[in-house]
Amino acid sequence: MQLHCYKYQGTGNDFVILDNREKTISLTLEQIKFLCDRRFGIGADGLMLLELEPGIDFKMVYFNSDGNQSSMCGNGGRCITAFAKRLGIITNEAKFLAIDGTHESKIGDDETVSLKMNDVRQIEVGDDYFYLDTGSPHYVKLVNGLQTFDVVGEGKKIRYNDRFKAEGTNVNFIEKKDNELFVRTYERGVEDETLSCGTGVTAAALVAGFKGMSTGKNNCSIKTLGGNLNVKFDKVLENTFYNVWLEGPATFVFTANITLTEA
């Protein structure tokens, strides 16, 4: 099978994207793992198919690098919006379907892509953690010394504990630094730290809003290892957020033709 692939990244969270509007692409778990492999394939945190969907601009089908279809990916949603513009499907605004429902997205004059996330109506508050769903499940914990923190080791302990080992969870460690929130994330499905996670950054920003740690009113500037993002939101009750927007760069990297061995 011959594939024409596109590589995009959003603050270091990178993706292989395929144009599947003709519905001619059907990949096995092993083929997706191969394409995402950083040594033997193209290399990515995930793979997306852009498909047609009646009544809206397109459909986003997302797979983690382990080959399994996954829950919502915020940076992926921003990158596939930029890809849709490249294909001429949209100009600067889009409405598309993802696994967690319909999303709106916008591309600014500086090519910054903003993605509207789902409302969040509940935040679970534990002794030393917060747990919420921003399209994907996220465990959020405040720590000190995050720059040198063992994100993979500590994240893996939480992701595979008795509560989460069956379905998994993403694990975010956060630290307030001057006028920004520093966030590092261990992602399920990748089973490693990623340079950035859009739904994780969103979860971290809403926890900051809940805790009164936001860097601005209804706004949180985020630093990740891969770059800077911004989250805007409106707050109704102390743990209810709506009109949530994830904002940041979505960058085209390259195209590639690759031949896949048939399954």
Please, could you describe this protein's structure?
- This protein has about 260 residues and is α+β, with helices and mostly antiparallel strands.
- The chain has two domains: about 1-115 and about 250-260, Diaminopimelate Epimerase, Chain A, domain 1 (Roll); about 125-245, Diaminopimelate Epimerase, Chain A, domain 1, CATH 3.10.310.10.
- It is built from four helices and 17 strands.
- The protein has helices spanning about 30-35, 75-85, 150-160, 200-210, and strands spanning about 1-10, 15-20, 45-50, 60-65, 95-100, 100-105, 110-115, 125, 130-135, 135-140, 170-175, 180-185, 190-195, 220-225, 225-235, 240-250, 250-260.
What is the CATH-assigned architecture of the largest domain?
Answer: Roll
User: How large is the count of helical segments?
Assistant: 4
Query: What's the N-to-C terminus distance?
Result: 10 Å
Number of self-contained structural domains: 2
Biggest beta-sheet profile:
17 strands, mixed
| Count of strand segments | 17
SS-based class: alpha+beta
Global morphology: globular
Q: Helical residue percent?
A: 10-25%
Features:
single chain, alpha+beta, Diaminopimelate Epimerase, Chain A, domain 1, 2 domains, 17-stranded mixed sheet
Topology:
Blueprint: E1 2-10, E2 13-19, H1 29-36, E3 46-51, E4 58-64, H2 74-87, E5 93-98, E6 101-107, E7 112-117, E8 124-125, E9 130-133, E10 137-142, H3 151-159, E11 170-177, E12 180-187, E13 192-194, H4 198-211, E14 219-224, E15 227-235, E16 241-249, E17 251-259
Parallel strand pairs: 2-3, 4-5, 10-11, 12-14
Antiparallel strand pairs: 1-2, 1-17, 3-4, 5-6, 6-7, 7-16, 8-9, 9-10, 11-12, 12-13, 14-15, 15-16
